[in-house]
Amino acid sequence: MAVISEVDLPGVGRKYEITTYERDRFTIVIHHSGIREIYIYRDGDPDPLFAVELRDDEARQIGSILAGAFFRPKAVENLEVVLQELRIEWFRLDARSPVVGKSIGELGIRKRTGVSVIAI
């Protein structure tokens, strides 16, 4: 599994530094404007080997390819049978949300909705 660290870049956006299982390194910078920059690094070199800049729509299109929306390897197809009822959704909560500071048990979401929440 990849190791990912993220850092806010004030006035710019957010930076994600990724090291893969195979120890390859790359950085993704997401600008407030929607532009994404991807920097690929060579072993131990602090300067990027090359960089790619993507518009928001391009990044989303490539992201869907990486997520398997267009092509699914056989291993994923087999796993999908097991997980066909599973749906994972991510929500960003405002700091003033009534769920902030409460445990999943305190919120009683499963009792009220039947939905299993695995993390807040």
Question: Any chance you could write out the topology, listing elements then pairs?
Answer:
Layout (H helix, E strand, L loop, with lengths): L2 E7 L3 E7 L5 E7 L4 E6 L6 E7 L1 H11 L7 H9 L21 H4 L1 H5 L7
Antiparallel strand pairs: 1-2, 2-3, 3-4, 4-5
Summarize the entry for a quick read.
With 120 residues, the chain is of the alpha+beta class. It has helices at 56-66, 74-82, 104-107, 109-113, and strands at 3-9, 13-19, 25-31, 36-41, 48-54.
Supply Rg.
18 Å
Count of extended strands: 5
Structural class per helix/strand content? Answer: alpha+beta
Residues in β-strands, percent: 25-35%
Average pLDDT score? 83
Biggest sheet architecture:
5 strands, antiparallel
Q: What characteristic shape results from the CA principal axes? A: elongated
Question: Could you spell the SSE succession in H and E letters?
Answer: EEEEEHHHH
* Unreliable residue runs: none
Q: Tell me the strand order in the biggest sheet.
A: 1-2-3-4-5
Distinct helical segment count = 4
